[in-house]
Amino acid sequence: MTTLDTEIASRFARITLAHIGLQYPYKLDQVLTGPADAVPPTTLHPIFHGSFDWHSCVHGWWQLLTLRRMFPDLPEASAIGALADRMLTPALVAGELAYLDRPMSGGFERPYGWAWLLALHGEAERHDAPWAAALAPLARAFAARFLAYLPKLTYPIRVGTHFNTAFALVLARDWATGREPRLADLIDARARDWFGADRACQAWEPSGDDFLSPTLTEAVLMRRVLPPDAFATWFAAFLPDLAAGQPATLFHPVHVSDRTDGKIAHLDGLNLSRAWCWRSLADGDIALETTARRHLEASLPHLDANYMGAHWLPTFALLAMTH
């Protein structure tokens, strides 16, 4: 498995620093309620107006802060800290909060962006800086949205894109543990309700624009939710032919035919997120570790092949290399 070192971390940081404040192109997640709503992204999102879209900007910040903590002597560390001092402030957070109060904003970034904001706040708490305190009101706002949303979500969303329920709950549960027990307990209960009886998964993936594995992400969530013995029993029933390399589709990196196409470029993310999942599930199993390495190596060279990948792929490469 490729090892995360200063050289690779610096590469990740350089890619993300180049777009974290880049205003255009930008894809808004917005319902227009009148002509007054048509304003620049910097007005709507005073912090998260770069990196092509809101959620990519949020997890770009998570990636930068994580690299700064892991590699304090990184050449880009001072630039990351200075930019965070300028951007992660109470005044700018207030502007992000104001967007949540706009009409028809209840579904804004649900649930992917919600979960990444919680992950960003959790990472910010690991730094000797005022950034976490500034972000705390925004984290509480999204935690409240999860608490209201999960009880009424009758069915989990199992797609391989931003709407995937399991992936969001992995990140949200990591944040909620030790911070918001009500949310942690709710996530555990809903995960058991939705996924606890799943058996013999056929793994009908990948789809053409997946960047998450619905199969493996569900397993990563259940590993967090269930005690070790219970998870082992569940996992053996969920993927009963794993030792025989089945379902085969889960073991082979996917092919990316056009990295200039934003949706097709998602497939590089699928390779990276599968690597993260396999490493999280391997428990020393050499075959699974090898599968993780193959997925990582299939897409790691292509992180900045085109802006359609560069604005978000380093985050998933970092996940895959740190799990």
Q: Could you explain the architecture of this structure?
A:
- The protein has 2 domains: 1-152, no CATH class; 161-323, no CATH class.
- 56% of the residues lie in helices and 0% in strands.
- It contains 15 helices and no strands.
- Helix 9 crosses helix 10 (214-225) and helix 10 runs antiparallel to helix 11 (228-238).
- The chain is globular.
- The two termini are 12 Å apart.
- The mean pLDDT is 97.
Q: Describe the largest sheet.
A: none
Mean pLDDT: 97
SS summary, helix count: 15
Give the fraction of residues assigned to helices: 55-70%
Beta strands, count: 0
Q: What structural class do helix, strand and pairing data support?
A: mainly alpha
Brief account:
By secondary structure, the protein is mainly alpha-helical.
Key descriptive features of the protein:
323 residues, mainly alpha, 15 helices
Topology:
Elements lengths: L5 H12 L23 H4 L9 H17 L6 H11 L2 H11 L11 H13 L6 H19 L15 H12 L4 H15 L18 H12 L2 H11 L27 H17 L3 H14 L7 H4 L2 H10 L1
Helix pairs in contact: 1-3, 1-15, 3-4, 3-6, 5-7, 6-7, 6-8, 8-9, 8-10, 9-10, 10-11, 10-12, 12-13, 12-15
